[in-house]
Design goal:
Shape: elongated
Number of helices: 7
Strand content: 35-45%
Number of strands: 18
Low-confidence stretches: 1-20, 268-273
Length: 441
């Protein structure tokens, strides 16, 4: 029994993959390349979700154009407004890019990485890690030109589906580095350092998956106050709410003003027939017309992927619209509007090396799923300092986005006493179905 127990212990101990931590230059190169990879692909990966969430929340501002011009006392309209944005399939994928840079002798001789005198063959490198990172991008450029690296045509955005991998042929990297124009001028010790740093470069990098989402949902309480010379004020606000794994925690607030244009053309709107219900008119105008301006500030926070990378995005949104409505007495109102939206987004992303890359570099521990079979599929275990510290130096990237769009919406509204219900559909880059219920007092 003791022999059997000892044997099992040996199997378990030996089944833990013996994988030493890669040399520091390889780890530094992996971090630099991971940042370059995200900088090249982060905007197309993240922007569809950030834009869609903000565009969806930037809707449902009006359901009628009529604004009483004179009232005996202020009135209020409190409503719950719901918006559903539809994600177009084109927003679920993008064309991934492999970071690369064509070799430029001026970069080498500029002193950026140290002194390199090719003519006299004098080299004094002060930034070895930076030089290796630059040469690696040169190698990737040459490899792409020679079709040695196969880059997939599509990868998933955060709204798309599965992960995508970029595969790098390590043997091709070794061959290309020796063909690099500067390689032969480097001292033997630096050549060895470069080769050692590149030989353990991971053979693939994983681009993150998405949530395979087709719709984005938002709901917001809204209060409108009127009327002052045919002008209404609007306030909307939601505290931070969790919208799920792939969207995260979302909050926003907004303010706006709407002003009646039709009051200047139809004199009957200057009189209120029923002070208790200023929206009731015995002689409504042929149609009503208003203009509106609104400002919103949104905040989005999320943790993405297995490594819990952090995303925090802020958006400033301006909406200018002109809306019209037609009252059909005893039936309903029909309304339509044309909006111009300006969305400015600042997104900060703090991220770590993918777990597969950390495991390859020896920063995380890999063990087989079946301890009795060392050849079984491996799983990655979390950091266990000091032997497996994980990635302790996260990268940070700031992504700035600006989006401008026109949106046309039309809908119907039904008043039932002090209650109004409404539904409309908006056409833009992201089609939006919205509706709600409103209490007027």
């Amino acid at each position: 029994m003791k022999k059997l127990s000892l044997a099992l212990i040996l199997i378990i101990v030996c089944s833990v993959e013996s994988f030493s931590v890669a040399n520091q230059y390889t780890i530094d190169l992996a971090r630099a390349f991971s940042k370059d990879l995200f900088d090249a692909n982060g905007v197309p990966y993240l922007s569809p979700m950030v834009e869609t969430v903000n565009a969806t929340s930037n809707a449902r501002f009006f359901n009628q154009a009529y604004i009483p011009t004179k009232v005996d006392k202020p009135y209020f309209k409190f409503g719950i407004h719901m918006m559903t944005g539809f994600v177009d399939n084109s927003k679920k994928s993008y064309h991934p890019t492999l970071p690369n840079e064509k070799f430029d002798i001026n970069v080498i001789t500029s002193g950026k990485y140290g002194t390199v005198d090719i003519i006299n063959q004098k080299v004094n490198i002060k930034d070895t890690a930076g030089l290796i990172s630059y040469l690696f991008k040169n190698i990737l450029y040459d490899g792409l030109q020679q079709n040695k690296f196969n880059i997939p045509n599509e990868a998933s955005t955060i709204l798309g589906g599965d992960t995508t991998q970029l595969h790098l042929d390590n043997q091709a990297i070794q061959d290309l580095v020796k063909q690099h124009p500067i390689y032969g001028f480097l001292p033997k010790a630096l050549q060895d350092t470069l080769l050692n740093a590149l030989k353990d470069v991971p053979g693939f990098y994983t681009l993150p998956a998405g949530g395979n989402m087709s719709t984005i949902f938002a709901g917001v309480p809204q209060l409108e106050i009127g009327s002052f010379f045919g002008t209404e004020a609007l306030i909307r606000f939601i505290p931070e709410v969790d919208l799920g794994k792939y969207i995260g925690k979302f909050s926003f607030w907004g303010i706006g003003l709407k002003h009646s244009i039709s009051q200047y053309f139809y004199e009957e709107q200057t009189a209120v027939e029923n002070p208790e219900n200023p929206w009731e008119r015995s002689n409504p105008a042929p149609f009503d017309l208003s203009v509106q301006a609104a400002y919103q500030r949104t905040n989005l926070k999320n943790k993405v992927g297995v490594t819990n990378s952090n995303l925090e995005a802020h958006a400033n949104i301006l909406n200018f619209n002109i809306n019209a409505s037609k009252s059909i007495p005893d039936w309903f109102d029909i309304y339509a509007g044309l909006s111009y939206d300006i969305i400015n987004i600042e997104a900060d992303f703090t991220y770590y090396l993918p777990v597969e890359t950390q495991a390859h570099l020896g920063l995380l521990r890999r063990v087989p799923k079946d301890p009795s079979n060392p050849n079984s599929e491996y799983i990655v275990l979390g950091p266990e300092p000091p032997e497996y510290p994980g990635d302790t130096e996260p990268q940070t990237t700031t992504v700035s986005l600006e989006d401008k769009s026109l949106k046309f919406a039309f809908g119907i509204s039904k008043k039932i006493g002090p209650i109004a219900v409404f539904i409309d559909y908006g056409f833009s880059k992201f089609n939006i179905l919205s509706g709600g219920i409103e209490y007027r007092f």
